[in-house]
Amino acid sequence: MIKSKLPTEVELIYEVMPCNAMRTAQEPSGKKHACTYFRKWGNYHSYDYKEDGPPAQPGIEQPSQYVGLAPLTPEVLSGCRKSPIMAIGINPNLPGFFSSRKNSVYPLFDDYKQFAHYFRYRSTDKLEIPDEKFDQYDIASEERPPDLRTDLNVPQQDGERTVPLQKQPVTFYNQLQSMLDDMAKRMDWADHKLSVGEDLAYINMVACPSAVWMTRPRNRYPDDLVMSNEETKGIVHECFHHRQYFLRQFFQSLPKIIVVISGTTARAFISEMKDRFIMGDPQVGESINDLLDRKHVLKYGELPDGEELTARVIFSHHITGNASSFGKVREKVLNQMVEEAQLGNVILNETTGHLLRPKGGCVFCPMMEVGVCDYENELVPLSDHMSLTADSPVGMLMEEKRAQMEFIQFQREGESDLAWTEDDEDFQTLDETP
Hints:
This protein has 434 residues and is an alpha/beta fold. Helices cover 29% and strands 15% of the residues. A hairpin with a 4-residue loop joins strand 12 and strand 13. The longest helix is centred in the C-terminal third of the chain and has 20 residues, at 323-342.
């Protein structure tokens, strides 16, 4: 389905950013949308950039102002849309829910281009207020999520509450970076620049955040944070099947290696993609350890010239939610990534120090004024054109979009009762989960 005359990767920015607000506030009177569930997780300290428009420089550290407590915004893919490696989770995490990360802050932009810039350059860190400053501003330290009600007392000057922000290292993402480093070492890529955000992007199957995907009661969590069956089905239908936020980005990105993280994510991914596996025959509910014992290959589809587009799928325990189990299988995950490099399915561009981009066009960075595309000369469109840029005629851009949509039209909804339910082995160390 062609929703607009915008390229998929750009169209998603305009649809995802306001989505939860619209589902919550703009539904017909008397009707409660399933996605209002995410508002149960409460409001969190938020910031906006001080300057209008997308920042001129890369990175998420920009001059910012505190704007108060607010619901969280849905998230899009973090990193380059054409990263050859994609890590997949069930839904975005929520560090600020835990007392150890109470100084976390979240972006609340009213500028779509700022939203695009932030998620293009988010890599191994999020943002926080330095501890000493946060303690100075926090005048209601007894309040805890999901019941934060009092804004921070950030001094106002010239109509703005300028707030110092610093990077908040995220163990989950830094572990992914260590995997890239070890992969490069094993391949003897001495001068590589492999990095999370450039060579590995991260996306979730559902766009709205919560501290955990909770389909059953858990200690230390209010009972009303458990998703009912109706809420789970409604959320999955709205976000994954109807609006297809994940699917549209997935088939625009077309990564060569897919790392499915956690048993919970594996259940959902296998259920929804089961018909696309041409090797491995993974089963919903199968353990991560068993899944790692064999090779899994997914087929995106075929191009008009007969070229078959495929990806290696690697299943992993949750990196931080089940750190002990991940540590035991990390080498197996790494070995499968290295195998794909040895087979030539991911290739280092020795000029840039990054991996070559997979098949398919992308105009995200220039069209959203995020910056120049560092990989423009590597991109090969799916459609019958030598290249595509943000200045290409709309008709050419739509041909590329139609080629992506051809893959999605064969998508079948998953039918397993286990799909989209929480795996008991996930999130064993919730207080440490970033």
